[in-house]
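>> received
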Amino acid sequence: MDKKRCPWAGQEEIYIRYHDLEWGRAVHDDRLLFEFLLLEGMQAGLSWITVLKKRENFRRAFDGFDPDAIAGYTEKDSERLLADAGIIRNRLKIAAAIVNARAYLKVKAEYGSFDKYIWQFTGGQPIVNHWSDASEVPAETELAQKMSKDLKKRGFKFVGPTICYAFMQATGMVNDHLTTCFAHKEAGNV
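>> returned
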């Protein structure tokens, strides 16, 4: 019998795998949190599947999402990235990735880890929602607005409330799997 999934997972294998194994699962690894933050920023105005299909290219192009390496990128690196057809070639988003790497390193130095900083917004615990229909899932929340405001204050770019909420969903800070979805319980946040 097929597993019951959130409707957005659709039929594409890459989406199903992402839904089943990553989305809504609590992430506490600093590098992976940074990866999601950059990918969510790259997704702005595009579909998430576009980003997922280019994820490995992003990993290659952005030194495995190593914030130390990205923080040191120069104009030459920006030009290299803009010429890379395997990624989203948007000058503002690429510049934001570099700015965000630098801001990330400052936050990490201040808090000891990015994980400690970012999870403070949910009190260190996932917020478990109990939506029964996809139409109930918000695009942003007051908490996402608060996170966005604080990230922007710290110099981050492409971190509006909608991007922050998508980041929270992706990293399991909120569990927005529908209650009818097998992953709602499997995410381990109930």
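>> The longest strand covers residues 127-128.
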